[in-house]
């Protein structure tokens, strides 16, 4: 293939191979064949009787030493994955809540309340008085109330009230309305220990309750409080792919998930002293670029360029121009410490809860964020002179311009107008058939799906050509961004109806809504669409669906489970996490429909997923009587 037709990650991968630098693809190959029991969820090591394996095909054991069967094995794994995913998003949310309190108390220099309107809206959700009160007083109380959501002894999560009434009734009836976030995670761990919950249906119910504590709890707290602190995303221009890194500049790559670190790096990267230091080393300036969800956070709020998504992290370092890669937590590969040894790059960890052997550590706390950020920036500037020019290789690819920043508020304003912002126009365009429906694409990129795939790009193209509006988050959004799919000109690749709407409103047909925690924006958007009327009265009535083609993280499982429990049909690519337990598979892919009005689907052939999503949307339209 000509270099021009290759994506920057493919070009970089070729270069790394040529330079004999190990990549995740080499390690993936070295892992083959991967453990069959593990792949089917039929290995249990929850106690030291094990590891126990179940033989799904031959005459081997059908039960573990304690007697647990395949469904129990797989349901326990599924619940633990959901709990772990919930813990990741929620611990992130907790850190943001702490920062909000510290900011309100004046204990976090540099940070401030940026979106007062949203602060007041969230205060209302929490039944906090706003009239005649100081902004910081309200913010402190909102932060404290958010923190209480993690450990309150009684009641259910406050944000559950934002769902349509019909949805809340389903949760109450099934007993899956989430209580305190930490309680749901702890109870999930308790239930899945040896001799605990051993009924796969009951375990799956808890997987819904703990995941709802993610989507309508920890993730939503992270999203909303970040908007209060850093601004609610609005349409902003940006650039994406490895070409955003620059030869003559000091390059700092910010990688991970919690935007408070990246925001501090951005804040501390300007000023006369920094300019002087940059000039002294002979660089033209500083480039800050994001990776993974940190990239999404920075892109949707500030238009700061994105170097890439999950599977591009080693490649970003291998450009040889990264002075510092600074990381916080989640989706940061230990392999980076090894890749860094080939270059002058310093890998810097920042959180005491996420260190990497071989990396330098600069502790990052709310109180000293700016100081730590400055230290890291000066470290990068100082490291510029150590760059080995012979090793510099930035793929020569154009950097697609893009428009990002589609929070649910923005979608509402753009479609409904500032003075009558509502989802009415979107609903009307769905009812009249210009837009057939909406699909949220979320999630990771994985070597299991192939090398440097463009699966999300292909799926998004297929959907928009069929008049389906696409909302993207996480690394799926990252791939679509670097694939040039977030350009308003892309309307020419849409079906006629969607093209008309995109032209009238001025939006691209693939909307970047943010990071993984911002799937909570999709929940709110769907709730508002359902409440708006004309498309039923619950999320499960809407012609919408979710998809994750290359899932990797436990967080993806929690997201899938909270989308389904919220009434959104969700398809995952590659492999089912419960493939070795047919009854559980049947529960997730069929029976759940009766309970929550939505279900999972797992499809190995990711090329088939587009059709599955479109069929689902047409089926929902038929049920609504709008099959025009
Ligand atoms: S970063 S969880 S690889 S989307 Fe949120 Fe990407 Fe998946 Fe990590």
Number of DSSP helical runs: 24
Number of folding domains? 3
* Strand percentage: 5-15%
**Total number of strands:** 16
Mean pLDDT: 95
CATH class of the largest domain: Alpha Beta
Fraction in helix: 40-55%
Named CATH topology of the largest domain: Rossmann fold
Strand order of the largest sheet: 6-5-4-7-8-9
Computed over alpha carbons, the radius of gyration is 24 Å
Major β-sheet annotation: 6 strands, parallel
User: Which compounds are bound in this model?
Assistant: Broken Fe4S4 cluster
Find the structural class using helix and strand composition.
alpha/beta
In short:
The protein is α/β, with parallel strands linked by helices and 628 residues long.
Give a verbal description of the structure.
- There is one protein chain.
- The protein has 628 residues and is of the alpha/beta class.
- It has three domains: 70-230, Up-down Bundle (Substrate Binding Domain Of Dnak, Chain:A, Domain 2); 241-391, Rossmann fold (3-Layer(aba) Sandwich), CATH 3.40.50.2030; 406-624, Rossmann fold (3-Layer(aba) Sandwich).
- The chain has helices at 8-18, 24-30, 36-39, 70-104, 116-125, 135-151, 165-174, 181-191, 200-230, 259-268, 272-280, 292-302, 313-317, 335-340, 369-383, 408-416, 424-431, 455-465, 474-482, 496-505, 519-532, 554-565, 582-596, 609-624, and strands at 43-44, 52-53, 236-239, 250-255, 286-291, 306-308, 322-327, 346-349, 360-361, 401-404, 437-441, 468-473, 510-514, 544-548, 569-573, 600-603.
- A six-stranded parallel β-sheet has the order 6-5-4-7-8-9. Strands 13-12-11-14-15-16 form a six-stranded parallel β-sheet, sandwiched between helices. The protein has a two-stranded antiparallel ribbon with strand order 1-2.
- A hairpin with a 7-residue loop joins strand 1 (43-44) and strand 2.
- Helix 9 crosses helix 22 (554-565).
- The longest helix is centred in the N-terminal third of the chain and has 35 residues, at 70-104.
- The radius of gyration is 24 Å and the shape is globular.
- The model has no long low-confidence stretch (mean pLDDT 95).
- Bound molecules: Broken Fe4S4 cluster (MSK).
- The site of Broken Fe4S4 cluster has 15 residues, from helix 12, helix 19 and helix 22.
